[in-house]
Every structure is written in C-alpha cells, then in structure tokens.
Amino acid sequence: NFVSELDAGFYADFYQKDGIKGGHIILLNPVTSPYYEATKQQAILALHAYPKGLQVGGGITAENAASYIEEGASHVIVTSYVFKDGKINYENLNKLVTAVGKEHVVLDLSCRYLDGQTLLDDETEAREAGYYVVTDRWQKFTSEKVTTELLDELAMYCDEFLVHAVDVEGKQSGIEKELAKLLGEWGKIPITYAGGIHSFSDLQAIKELGKNRLNATIGSALDLFGGNLKYKEVLEYLKE
After folding, report:
1. Structural contact between residues 73 and 56, judged by C-beta atoms closer than 8 angstroms
2. In this predicted model, what pLDDT tens digit does every residue of 4-31 receive, in sequence order?
3. Predicted confidence (pLDDT) at residue 116 exceeds the cutoff of 70
4. Residue 170 has pLDDT above 80, yes or no
5. What is the pTM of this model?
6. CB contact at 8 A, 217 and 193
7. Alpha carbon distance 141, 131 (integer Å)
C-alpha cells in the first residue's frame, strides 16, 4: 500500500531521536531473490543508524543470526527456522539460542484462526478451534496452537514474543480482541501484538484487553507509511 522514497537509515534515525526501541526490520525478499543483497544492505544501514535499538527478521537462521547482532541488532526475529515442517524444531531452536543467547531471540508466533471445522489441504482431521502459528509468508498452518502452555514452553528460549494477527494484518480493520486478551492474561515476558491497528480505540482496546502488558506495532495505519494515525499523536497517547 505504500512505498517510501526514504531509506531504512532515515527511519532508524527518526525512531532513535524519539527513543523508541524494538522497531522491526523485516527482510521481505528471500535469500533466493535477486534483490536479497540490496534488502540486506538496507537492514544493515538501519542497524548502523540505531545500534541496539532495532530488531531484525526475515530468513534468520543459527548460521546468520550472530552476524546481525554484530551489526547492531538488539534481537533477531525468527519464525520458519524454528517452526519447521508444521511443528517446533527444537534442534534448530537450541542451535539459535546457542548462537546468540536467548536474550537476543524474539520468537514470532504469527497466527491465524481456525474455527475447528476448517479442513486444511494436508490434513485429514479437523482441529480444535483457536489461533495456530503460520509460516512461509503466513500461508502454511503449523500444528502449534497459541496457548498459555505454548507460551510457557517457548519462553525458556527467547526474550520476547512477536505475534501478528495475520487475518487482520495490513487491513486496518480492527484488532483480534480474543488474541489480545489471551496474550495479556499470560504476560510473563514482553509480547508485541501486531495486526489491524487503525485507530486510538484499537490502542485503548490493547491496553485494556492486554492489561497494560502488551506492546503494539503499527504499520500501514501510521502516517509515516501513508496511513491516518499521526505518529506524534500516537506517541503522546501512549505516554498517558
């Protein structure tokens, strides 16, 4: 919906001036893309502009994670490397933690809702209703349901969780309230909710449902990226 004429370093410097930490740099081009190296250079440009202030994700593995920490990332964000072949790959998860330490790991539990009746192409049984982690550009469902038990288990391997509510991501149509409530009731380590935020009422709902335990990330709804929510007003609102 929006293509900036400014580079990643501009935004990193912009956030640094306001002391905003934990912004997400996501490399959308895969390693196989001819644009990958240019994308990676933009990520590194941002990391150098705001050392230890930003997190980086997209194609992160145990083999390359440390290089991003060395370039200045505070954390690496990981999904597909850990959630592989439809379930948690503990071998990869342990390799990642060994490579950079759990204090530098953010596990992305981006998820979509299954109503319990939906049959997926590759399965023969209906699932219990709930939010399930998705991978591969959010197209593939895993067998991992987002529950307090899953959060308890994975919290031993990471410093934070990032949770995209994929069904409303980028649509500016409101948040997934049940998901926000589930995450807020757990609240044992930092969690960032993303997806559907387009108004101050959404931010208020995250505060209330999340019991003031949830961080929020705003993308296309922010005026910096072509949306209607004014950046400065959001900052002031969140200070209240």
Report:
1. yes
2. 899 999 999 999 999 999 999 999 999 9
3. no
4. no
5. 0.93
6. yes
7. 10
Q: List the Cα angle 178/28/165 in 5-degree steps.
A: 5
Strand locations in 58-153, DSSP E? 75-78, 83-84, 87-88, 105-108, 111-114, 130-135, 140-145
CB burial class (10 A; 0-12, 13-18, 19+) of residue 199?
middle
Checking if the pLDDT of 94 tops 70, the result is yes
Residues 6+ apart with CB under 8 A from 149: none
The token pair at 226 is 């072509």
pLDDT tens for 181-221 read 999 999 999 999 999 999 999 999 999 999 999 999 998 89
Helical packing angle, 231-239 and 200-209, nearest 10°: 30
Dist. CA 137–CA 130, nearest whole Å: 20
- Round to whole Å and give the CA distance between 165 and 49: 29
Name which of 188, 118, 137, 131 is nearest 165 in CA terms: 131
| Secondary structure class of 83 (helix, strand, coil) | strand
Q: Is the pLDDT of residue 117 over 60?
A: no
SS3 (DSSP) at 202: helix
Q: Are the beta carbons of 42 and 71 closer than 8 angstroms? A: no
Backbone angles phi, psi at 112, to 5 degrees: -125, 155
Strand order across the beta sheet in which 214-217 lies? 23-26, 54-57, 75-78, 105-108, 160-164, 191-194, 214-217
